[in-house]
Amino acid sequence: MEVREGAGGLKSLTDADRADIKTTICEKILLTAEHPLITFSSSQVTGTPDAFQITGDLAIMGQARPVTVHGRIDGGRLRGHTTITQSRWGIKPYSAFAGALRLADDIQVEFDLAIPG
Hints:
CATH class of the domain at 36-114: Mainly Beta
Structural class: mainly beta
Distance between the termini: 28 Å
Largest sheet: 5 strands, antiparallel
CATH architecture of the domain at 36-114: Beta Barrel
Radius of gyration: 16 Å
CATH topology of the domain at 36-114: Lipocalin
Shape: globular
Order of helices and strands: HEEEEEEE
Number of strands: 7
CATH superfamily of the domain at 36-114: Lipid/polyisoprenoid-binding, YceI-like
Strand content: over 45%
Helix content: 10-25%
């Protein structure tokens, strides 16, 4: 996971800020040395290629929680998103600079995958 953009802060995020945040998230928040994988196991798919939902379990740090992913097939690509509430997995949202920079508990996860042809 990585922070791609920030809004509402006193200053814009720099590339160095993003790199620092990524290191902190991996080493201190998600503990990727102990939990290197985030997995999703689907249990149901409904809808059409233009608008579908995939229900399943998302496992972060060894804890699985149900989520619904919304997606669509678009020009040979599979695109979609879901919202994750970090605290449901026991994750304290990232905070730095004495709280001047912090991630919201709800984060948007997006994907854009090529469909093998």
